[in-house]
Each structure stands twice: as structure tokens, then as C-alpha cells.
Amino acid sequence: MNSQELTTNNHSTPLSGAFLGVSTTIGVAGAVLMGIVSWVLLLINRDIPVLAILAISLVSFGFLTFLFLRNLQSQHMRVGAASGLIGGVISMIYLGSLMVVQPESLEGFESQANQFSVGGTLMAIVVIALLAIAGGLMGKLLSSKPRYASMDIDWRARFAWVVAASYLPLIAVGGLVTSTESGLAVPDSVTTYGAIGVLFPLSLMDEIRIYLEHSHRIFGTFAGIATIILVVRMFGAPSRLLPRIMSVLLLIAVSAQGIMGALRVSEESQALAALHGVLAQLVFALAISTGVVCSRRWESINASDEGIDSAKSTRLLLLLTAIGLTIQLVFGAMTRHLDSGHALMSHIGFSFIVVVLVIIAGAKCIRLGKIDDSLKHMRRYGAVVHGLVMLQFTLGWGALAMTQTGEEGHPTLPTASELDNAHGIRIMETVITSSHHVIGALLIAAIFGALMWAIRVASRPKS
Predict the structure, then answer these.
(1) 69 within 8 A of 79, measured Cβ to Cβ
(2) 124 in a structural domain
(3) Does residue 85 form part of some domain?
(4) Global pTM value
(5) Mean pLDDT within 420-449
(6) What's the N-to-C CA distance of the chain in angstroms?
(7) Is the CB of residue 65 less than 8 Å from the CB of residue 134?
């Protein structure tokens, strides 16, 4: 059967692999959104009723499913229901905290750890069923279109972007853990107060530092599982070599990050915490780069000779900028985790060089997009990095003003046994420094993504 016949047949009955790929992409994306929504709600107020959180999460899942399903031209209900089922199963990472016995305090919790509750388990099963129903209903709303267009969309590439998106809440919560001195709020490095991570009861997350550290681990678990699925999808069907290599490298990097995070807690090492923070942003940049190389545009790009010449100089500027941002990231991590005055002064001074590099590199990206219409997406990269660097530079000075108050360094990180008497969290400082952390991660990832494109175009043969 040739590709034309395959495409024609696919209009009426999608291939099982394509169906599963579409459903997995939508389901995992919905689970990411549900995790973010529920986390934000609990951060705002951990007394919000569980049923209200679940209801809002279900609505958010249904909305995202609707947006994805609009790309299909048939099989909406089937794909929607399968997406809900897959999303629900993946969401067990979050729902596990509801499936166990809910003790009133940590005292004596070890004897109750990992004990399932009948009511909580039934609730989790009902949520999975409701997600499948919600997905099916969203599909029903769109079922009037008679064709199926799975061959027109590269769902594996979309899934790679979903995986990259799952890293962002992990980085954001990691920044909050550092800003609130919550890194040692959980005493054990692998389990959480003796419980398997995903089975730590929601009732024991009232202490903000425990909530932040534990949820950081949960988002890390989700990112790891999503990355494993990405590798399976890359090797489970015909694929180019580079995306496969990138997905494996990403899995190795995520696994190394998880191990390093555990060692950081067991060793109570601030040096490991700094290294963990640096590598987290570089892993996110690797995830974005993986999404880039998985795209169909990457494979089919056909630049003009003028565009190829311009890409070569753009590649050099982006490479220098990526190196500069990595150095700046190291200075920032040493400042935050090691309270190093030398690193702080280096971070401040080097920021001016980095800003200039980013502005020039962004301008080169915009020019490259104007020279060759097939590279117009580079204009968006240029505009994004310009906006991010200005915001990052402003937040950097705000963070400096908030953290340099004349006190002799930050208080010692409270351990699990010291949480009751720990100092209060500085809300505004936490918001500014964590925002600076997240915007920095986005800026580095955008530069690395643009660099991958510049390398690709510059290596193309001229006509």
C-alpha cells in the first residue's frame, strides 16, 4: 500500500498507531494542565474543598481537549474518550494523594503510610471515568465534521512539545522551593515521610514548605513518565535518527536530575542544590530543542542561498549567547544557593554583556526571517527573546533589591524537624525571585531552540 492510499484510507478509519498517538498527546497534555490548575488552587488556599478542585480540573481538561480535537476531522468522540482515559490514568500521579488514608498530623504517620482508602480509591476511579466522559462529550460537540486528518498533523512532534511543557511547572515549583527555603522540608530523599511519593496524603500538605517540596517531586515524577512515553513513541514507529537520539539524551538527563535531587536532600548539600538548579534549566532547553528537531518543518526546510549565508552568522551569535546565558545561570545559582558575594557581583556585571548578546542575536534571528520567507518563524524567536531579556533584566534588579536588605545572608534552611519554628516566607521576594528564575529558563530555552534552527539552516547545501 503506497502513502497516497494510506492517506485516503485514513480519512475514514485512522490507523491504530495514529489513534493512540493522538489520544496520548491530548491525554498527557490535559493531565499537565490539570496538575497545574490543582496545584495553583491549593497554593492559593489549601482549604479549598477537594470536589471543587476536581470540578475545576475537569473543566480545564475538557476545554483543552476541545482545542486539540478541533484539529481532527472525524473520530472525535472516540479520540476524546480515549484521551480522557489516558489523561485520567496519568493523573493518578496527582490523585494518589486522595486515594490513601488521610491522617490529621505527621505524628505516627509512618504506621499509616501507603494505606489505601476505599472512598478515596473510588473517588479516583470516578474521576478517571468522568475524564473519559468529558473527552467524549467534547468530541460529540465536534463530531459533525466527516473527515479524519491525523496524517496532516505530526502528533509525535506535538507530544514532544507537551513533554517540554511538563518541565515548566517543575522548574517553577523548584524556584519556589529555593525562594522559600523549602529544600529540606521533607527529610527522606526518595519517599515523603515514609510514603511512596504519589501516595503522600493531601491532608498532610498544610505546611507550605512541605507542600512545595512534595509537589516539586510530583511534577518531577510526571516529567519523568512523560519523557519515557516520548522515547517509546520515538522508537515504537519509524522515525528519524536525530529525534530518537535527542529523546534518549533527554531521558538520561531527566533521570540524572532526579538522582541529583535525591542526593541533594540526603546529603543536605547546597552545592548539589546549585548544580541541580543549573542543570534543570539546561534540561528544559534540551526538551525545547527536542521539540524543534521532531517537527516536520525541520525535516523539510529548504532555505535560499542568502538565508543559508545569514544563518551561519546567526548561528555564531546564538552559540555565543547560549554560552553567555549558561555562565550567567551558573553565577545566579551560586548566588542563590551558596550565598556567594563574588558570584553575585559577577552575575550583576555579566548581565550587561548577556543583554547585549541576546539583543544582537535576537536581531539576527529577525533579519534571517525577513531574508527568507521559509524561515519566517525565526522572526518570532527574535521577538520572544527580546521581550524575555528585557523582562528578565528588570526582574533581576527587582530580585537584587528584595534580597539585599542589609542582613547577613539568608537564614539557614529549616529541616523537617524545624518547620514549626521556621521563619516566615517573604511573599514579594518569593514572587520576584521565582519569576526571575522561570523567565530565565524560558530565555535560555528560546535561545537554544533558535540555535538548533540556525545550525540546521546553516548546514543545508546551497543550490
Answers:
(1) yes
(2) yes
(3) yes
(4) 0.92
(5) 93
(6) 34
(7) yes
DSSP secondary structure letters along 370-422: HH-GGGTHHHHHHHHHHHHHHHHHHHHHHHHHHH-SSSSSPPPPP-GGGGGGP
Are 128 and 94 contacting, i.e. CB atoms less than 8 angstroms apart? no
* Beta bridge mates, 100: 116
Residue showing cell 485512522: 14
CA dihedral for 242, 248, 254, 260, sign (positive or negative): negative
Q: Does residue 84 register a pLDDT over 70?
A: yes
Does residue 314 share a domain with residue 232?
no
| Per-residue pLDDT band at 410 (split at 50, 70, 90) | low
Q: How does pLDDT run across 221-263, given as a tens digit for each residue?
A: 999 999 999 999 999 877 789 999 999 999 999 999 999 999 9
Q: Which residues pair with 362 in a beta bridge?
A: none
1 falls within a domain: no
Same domain, 131 and 161: no
Looking at 142-207, list the stretches that DSSP marks H as alpha helix, in order from N- to C-terminal side: 155-179
> Which amino acid, one-letter code, is at 372?
D
Residue 257 and residue 386 in one domain? no
What would the pLDDT profile of 316-365 be if each residue is shown by its tens digit? 999 999 999 999 999 999 999 988 889 999 999 999 999 999 999 999 99
Q: What is residue 237's predicted lDDT score, i.e. its pLDDT?
A: 75
β-pair partners for 79: none
> Same domain, yes or no, for 192 and 272?
yes
Of 300, 322, 343, which residue sits at a domain end? Answer: 300
Q: Which of 138-142, 146-150, 230-234, 354-358 has the lowest mean pLDDT?
A: 146-150
Task: Please give the residue range of the domain that contains residue 295.
Answer: 155-300
For residue 445, which of 226, 157, 171, 155 has the smallest C-alpha distance?
171
Among residues 264, 279, 300, the one where a domain terminates is 300
Residues 357, 462, single domain; the answer is yes
What is the SS3 assignment for 242?
A: helix
- pLDDT score of 398: 93
Residues 284 and 148 in one domain: no
Say how many domains are in the chain: 3
Q: What is the CATH number of the domain that holds 311?
A: 1.20.120
